[in-house]
Amino acid sequence: MAANFTPLISYMKSAFQRWAALPLSPLGRINRVKMNILPKFLYLFQSIPLFLPKSFFKNTDKLILSFIWAGKTPRVKKFSLQRSRLSGGLALPNFMYYYWAANIQKLVLWVQAPSLPWCHLEAQSCISISLPALVFSSLPIALSQYTDNPVVCTSLKIFYQFRRHFKSISASTMAPICNNHLFPPSFMDSTFSLWEKKGLKCLEDLFINNVLANFSELSSSFSLPPSHLLRFFQIRHCVSSLFVGFPSLPTKSAWEEVFKLNPHKRGIISQIYATIWSQDDSYNIKIVGAWEEELGLELEDDYWGRALDNIRTTTSCARLSFIQFKVVHRAHLSRSRLSKIYPNVPDMCENCKLSACNLSHMFVLCPKLQTFWNSFFGTMSDILKIKLDLCPLIAIFGVSSQCQPLNHEQASVVAFASLLARHRILLSWTSPQPPSISVWLRGLMFFLKLEKIKYNIRGRGDSFLGKWQQFIIYFNDLHTLEVD
Ligand SMILES: [Zn+2]
């Protein structure tokens, strides 16, 4: 550790100090971490199995977050930043998950490619037990009984750290029947090796249609002679003691599926990394709950998925994307939140004197904002030639609910236009004056020029016009009217 990771941490610290002077946005800083720091860590993670305690990653994350937020208090939860772009995050690397993913890839090779020379060597170092038996074992397990090979021990220790983190400590049905410490008869009885040759290799092979098969079903599938009945009872007893819900096949965890992937495929570590994330879906629940409570409605999974997607798809401008990211992830400080931090700050809107002055109030529900939002929805209805009612969901997330279905073009216009409206509201967050609709329109036209350039660079000028032509015509007419 001292030889490998300590110099890397010092390098990271000095790099952060150097980059701190650069005019980088949080998104730019995240990209720096992704491009310049992560590959150096990944290289080490892949080269040597070295056990790192979770506290190591906690401290690394602390350094990274302090760099990203330029030493200020982080406004968004670390996990929200680390989520993939497809799940509404900013894809800040989670170093601990990458550490686990790099290690798991080696174990997938143990299971899938045992004939590789180094896999063979590591398997040989285990006393009468197979590597898959150790991988798929229930936890805890006294490893020193089975191997004294430091590489094997550490690789498994890292893997068990991962499994314990996700509370996945029961045995897997992917465990082999032979050379398995959980099934001692397999050490003494060569019949089970015969089963293996006939294709009956792991515990899950004993299940047919998700239920443990009976002996006659197995003997017809794997041509077992009637004399093997006693062995069947032995393994049946073992299965019944290992898995709750016997005789049903236990549901597989996401990590178990990883062992069926092709370990030689390009991008396998990213795929394992994504699988690790898929085990962790608790992070959204709090944010969704907070929005639901404020708005007094239920956000369906599908709607929430579209709202998260919207962060990535609304604009190609990193600055605006980041604004939408912060809105959805509730990064802004409302008066309600301030009053919780500072007891002398009342939870009351300074403009309308109503409470609670939470984020929904400050973005849309405040009576002082009604003129602004009415004009916004009126203008959008005129331009899109549809009747678009004032909807808090569009005002906050830029996504319409099923009550007001929009086609693809309309939806992207509404997403972008409403994002600029939120941008306006944020600019006058603490001002007594509500934002003005004409300033919003002008801001929108300004950012639209940048969007147009990006569309043209990608050779998608037609698609830009398809979306925005009506809007530009409207704005130009408006301009003439004003001059008149
Ligand atoms: Zn108010």
Description:
A hairpin with a 2-residue loop joins strand 1 and strand 2. The chain has helices spanning 5-19, 26-47, 54-68, 78-82, 95-112, 117-124, 131-135, 150-165, 185-188, 191-197, 215-222, 229-242, 254-258, 268-278, 283-295, 301-313, 318-328, 335-341, 359-365, 370-384, 392-397, 408-427, 437-457, 461-483; strands spanning 207-208, 211-212. The longest helix has 23 residues, at 461-483. It has 24 helices and two strands. The protein is elongated and about 90 Å long. The chain folds into three domains: 1-93, no CATH class; 176-252, no CATH class; 283-482, no CATH class. It has a two-stranded antiparallel sheet. By secondary structure, it is mainly α. Bound molecules: zinc ion. Zinc ion is lined by residues 349, 351-352, 354, 361, 366, 368.
TL;DR?
The protein has 484 residues and is mainly α.
Radius of gyration: 29 Å
Going by helix content, strand content and strand pairing, the class is mainly alpha
Order of secondary-structure elements: HHHHHHHHHHEEHHHHHHHHHHHHHH
**Count of individual beta strands:** 2
Count the domains: 3
Strand content: under 5%
Largest sheet: 2 strands, antiparallel
Number of helices: 24
Poorly predicted runs: none
Based on CA inertia axes, which overall geometry fits?
A: elongated
Q: Spatial order of the strands in the main sheet?
A: 1-2
